[in-house]
Amino acid sequence: MAGQQHVSCGRDLHCVPDISSSTQLASVAGFDFAAMPIVHPRFKREFLEGKAKDRKGAFARSDLFLSSQDWSSLVVGKLSPWLQLDSDDETTRKNSQAALKQELAYAAHLSVPAVLVPLTSNKCANLGRCLLSHMQGHSNHQVWIQVPMCAPSSLTDDLIENDPKPETGGGDNEGIIPPGQDPWQWWNTLRRVCHHHKRLGVALEISTDLPAQTVINRWLGEPLKCAVFSTTLFLTNKKGYPVLSKAHQTIVNKLFRLDVQMMITGINHHPDKGIRAYQQYMDHLFQNQQPLTGVEAFAKGYEDYLQCPLQPLADNLESQTYEIFEKDPVKYTSYQKAVFQALKDRVPDSEKDTKTSIVMVLGAGRGPLVTASLKAAEQADRKVIVYAVEKNPNAAVTLFALKEDKWGDNVMVIQSDMRDWEAPEKADIIVSELLGAFGDNELSPECLDGAQPFLKDDCISIPSAYTSYLSPIMSHKLYNEVRLCKDKDKNQDAHFETPYVVHLHNVTRLADPIPLFTFTHPNQNNLDNTRYRAVNFDMEEDAEVHGFAGYFDTVLYKDVLLSTNPQTFSEGMFSWFSIFFPLKEPVHVSAKDQLVVHFWRNSTTRNVWYEWCISAPLTTPIHNINGRSYTIGM
């Protein structure tokens, strides 16, 4: 859907007298696909006993009714509604198993893109086993687990009408759905049985009464492939057309952001307008989405795409990498403001004509911070000499050219590692942009500590401090992205012990970020940059923890801040995505659980690395012990 100009919307068909005409009618009505039974309802099969056991003939209609291209693009298969793979009755269960295997095999034969599997309870272990067995074979279609957004009213009426039982303890359990009655738990049980298989997706039935926002957010972190809207959800506007409530429109717009396909089910409640009116309304919402701005527009096409973090100390960055970062509309404006304030504070008006400040840009790259510092000096009406220190010889070529063509004699270009440079004088202000997605993960602490010898005692560092933040997240998609990573030269768990820079998209943040490690500069008293901290998160909903999202914020100078923390995000900034620390095995947490996470930042003279684990509600092994899978080279 990412490149489409119209909504992808399907029609759920319960009765299909003629496959060819039904798909054609759906197409004429504007629908992109039709969900229809794989097997005709009259062909109920009995494999073990019964009248139909020895019946001869085809169990389904011929594949010749449609071309192979139409089967593979226009049809989503639906299983027979009578299947009960987890029935207590052995005959029913075995008969259902045989029928399911037959229907899935025929769906694979037809090359349909997906099969809809209804889920009605958390008693689904055998269904999960049969689905996993099928997906391990040669089929390549997706399996959409059709599940309601919240529990059907028949399951929750007693929760609303009856008085709470005395032994529940009153308020502590308020709002918690008992085990077995939460549809997300049904899905999660099946997903875990199927070991988070990459071809599993969710076809989410949108409810009339929407649940709490935390419940909705949890679904938005799942692999949503399709959202099912019953015609009974639609209201009628003044012109007689079907429309959705404002709350449902908000849900639809969030689903569009995740490239979820829509599907209309149920009879037409607006017969004078035709069934096409529902599709047209969905397309209207699609066309009138709010345009992407800031980081969303910048990252379009790279959502949930795993990238190895940059290591600018070990590797020289390429020109296009510098070019991308230099386009950030927020970062360099903020740096200029910080240098401006620092110069004003450092040199009073009475000394502005006689005192020259020494500004050192450490890690100058292709020079945007040098330009920002010069502009700040001009704006503040202060005299400066700027040293542009850069270890990358390729970027230094650009610096020398800019000095010659633009900056002039007030700038000195130094092609050297700041830790090895013997400065001719000491700095009044140092300016650097050595921060990574987790704040310290590009070794800003080690680099700036190496610059300590040429700082004046009252030197101002921009940035003056930065703090990393951590938040547990649920993302079936990211977990499978990591699992798909293969490297024959590394152990099988190596990719689960590696942090990734990623624009988080199909993700549920399970708790607000908590601060982890803080570094301040200048750092004259303590050059030990190892860290350890245990943090506790209170879980609001049952969930699967697939890993942790890392963010940071930084104080450039006084009140000039930059942040990737969702709670304080610097709007419009796109220089940094989040960082993702995966878990080898997802950890299930329940509402009211406390998740206890341990994080270490360790180092030797050659490398820095992170280690992490969970100690509650259960204990996991430490990930990346001794930096065995991932280190940052110094």
Written overview of the protein:
This protein is an alpha/beta fold and 634 residues long. The chain has 3 domains: 9-152 and 179-290, Divalent-metal-dependent TIM barrel enzymes (TIM Barrel, Alpha-Beta Barrel), CATH 3.20.20; 319-433, Rossmann fold; 465-633, Hnrnp arginine n-methyltransferase1 (Distorted Sandwich). The protein contains 16 helices and 26 strands. The strands form 5 sheets. The protein has an 8-stranded parallel β-barrel with strand order 1-2-3-4-5-6-7-10, surrounded by 4 helices. Strands 16, 17, 18, 19, 21, 22 and 23 form a 7-stranded antiparallel beta sheet that branches. It has a 5-stranded parallel beta sheet with strand order 13-12-11-14-15, with helices on one face. A hairpin with a 3-residue loop joins β24 (594-603) and β25 (607-616). α12 (331-346) packs across α13. The longest helix has 21 residues, at 90-110. The protein is elongated and about 100 Å long. The two termini are 43 Å apart. The model is unreliable at 154-175 (pLDDT under 50).
Features:
16 helices, Hnrnp arginine n-methyltransferase1, seven-stranded antiparallel sheet, 634 residues, 26% strand, TIM Barrel, 3 domains, alpha/beta, Rossmann fold
Architecture blueprint of SSEs:
Elements: E1 9-12, H1 19-28, E2 33-37, H2 68-74, E3 75-78, H3 90-110, E4 114-118, H4 125-135, E5 142-148, H5 153-161, H6 183-193, E6 200-205, H7 213-220, E7 224-230, E8 235-236, E9 242-243, H8 246-257, E10 261-265, H9 276-287, H10 294-298, H11 319-326, H12 331-346, E11 356-362, H13 368-380, E12 383-390, H14 393-407, E13 411-415, E14 427-432, H15 444-450, E15 455-462, E16 465-474, H16 476-484, E17 500-502, E18 508-509, E19 514-520, E20 531-538, E21 543-557, E22 560-563, E23 578-589, E24 594-603, E25 607-616, E26 632-633
Parallel strand pairs: 1-2, 1-10, 2-3, 3-4, 4-5, 5-6, 6-7, 7-10, 11-12, 11-14, 12-13, 14-15
Antiparallel strand pairs: 8-9, 16-18, 16-19, 16-21, 17-23, 20-24, 21-22, 21-23, 24-25, 25-26
